[in-house]
């Protein structure tokens, strides 16, 4: 199973997948060198190559990395920090206290808290650095045309269903232009890949997330009456709908009266460890003996991630808690 799409990079630099392969080897080497305590495998697949650093040279140097000190020197030499390929972008439609902000909230404490939350947009708004589109073989981040809002912390990229809540919040904050950018970024992903990716990283091209793009367009339309946006998005909404009702996701269910219903289920196009959590997935699969059983587990983990509910207590058996 392969992801739906692979971007081709500038000549000689390799593509997203070539870099991702190296970063997964860095991730495994980092686990060996640093140990499991506080280890976040996602950090390593988010690293962009440092300006001027050569991927093949990094690959060769990795072979001699064994200690923590080796790893620190190696990372400083060949990689820029995770998240540095997103640049800060002050949203021009941000106002410290927008006119008409939460008109029904009278409590002073509640308003002060809401304004603190509102101010977070300035911390979370970014633009994708131009190098990401110019030299895709140096980044696992994917280019997006407009301003982005990231979840924050270890999540240094746009996520699909998070964007729904982001858009709802931006509308409360009267940041209509930023909200429109968020939606058009997702429309761009549909145009490029045929569906909205789980997130805007090359390692998320094998699955989507709960399909909320049409709801975002609707919310924006209700708030602004922007029919142009609806027209612009419509072909992508149809394309996305086709993705979700296609053979990949479709399942036929027969009810008690013998009537057949078509449902769409989460189903990732992937049967390997998730690159952003590969060390964790591999350890889990190590308890299984056959390749087929491992592939089935990897596929199910990625499909659970497509549901967006990875991995909350709803997946846990009560009798083992
Ligand atoms: O807030 C962003 C998302 O965070 C969680 O999932 C993401 O991280 C997982 C591993 O680090 C990854 O496998 C998954 O595909 C990502 O979406 C959360 O479970 C998501 O609901 C949320 O959108």
From TrEMBL:
Please list the reactions this protein catalyses.
alpha,alpha-trehalose + H2O = alpha-D-glucose + beta-D-glucose
Q: Which domain of life is it from?
A: Eukaryota
Alphabetized UniProt keyword annotations: Glycosidase, Hydrolase
Report what the protein is called.
Trehalase
Keyword Hydrolase listed: yes
Query: What is a biological process (GO) this protein takes part in?
Result: trehalose metabolic process
EC number assigned by the record: 3.2.1.28
**Entry's family note:** Belongs to the glycosyl hydrolase 37 family.
For the protein in the UniProt heading, the enzyme class is hydrolase
Recorded GO molecular functions are:
alpha,alpha-trehalase activity
């Amino acid at each position: 199973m392969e992801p739906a799409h692979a971007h081709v990079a500038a000549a000689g630099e390799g593509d997203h997948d070539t870099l991702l392969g190296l970063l997964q080897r860095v991730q495994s080497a980092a686990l060996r060198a640093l140990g499991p305590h506080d280890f976040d495998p996602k950090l390593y697949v988010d690293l962009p190559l440092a300006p001027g650093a050569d991927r093949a040279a990094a690959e060769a140097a990795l072979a001699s990395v064994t200690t923590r000190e080796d790893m620190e020197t190696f990372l400083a030499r060949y990689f820029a920090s995770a998240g540095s390929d997103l640049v800060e972008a002050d949203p021009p439609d941000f106002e410290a206290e927008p006119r008409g902000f939460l008109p029904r909230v009278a409590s002073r404490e509640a308003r002060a808290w809401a304004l603190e939350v509102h101010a977070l947009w300035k911390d979370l708004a970014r633009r994708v650095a131009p190098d990401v589109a110019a030299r895709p073989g140096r980044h696992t981040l994917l280019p997006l045309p407009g301003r982005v809002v990231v979840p924050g912390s270890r999540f240094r990229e746009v996520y699909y269903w998070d964007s729904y809540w982001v858009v709802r919040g931006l509308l409360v904050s009267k940041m209509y232009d930023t909200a429109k950018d968020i939606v058009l970024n997702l429309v761009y992903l549909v145009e490029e890949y045929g569906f909205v990716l789980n997130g805007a990283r090359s390692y998320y091209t094998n699955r989507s997330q709960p399909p909320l793009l049409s709801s975002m367009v609707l919310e924006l339309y209700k708030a602004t009456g922007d029919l142009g946006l609806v027209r612009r998005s419509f072909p992508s909404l149809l394309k996305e709908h086709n993705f979700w009702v296609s053979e990949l996701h479709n399942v036929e269910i027969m009810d008690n009266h013998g009537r057949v219903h078509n449902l769409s289920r989460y189903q990732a196009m992937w049967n390997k460890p998730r690159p952003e959590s590969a060390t964790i997935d591999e350890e889990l699969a190590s308890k299984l003996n056959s390749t087929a059983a491992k592939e089935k587990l990897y596929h199910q983990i990625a499909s659970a991630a497509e549901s967006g509910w990875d991995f909350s207590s709803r997946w846990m058996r009560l009798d083992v808690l």
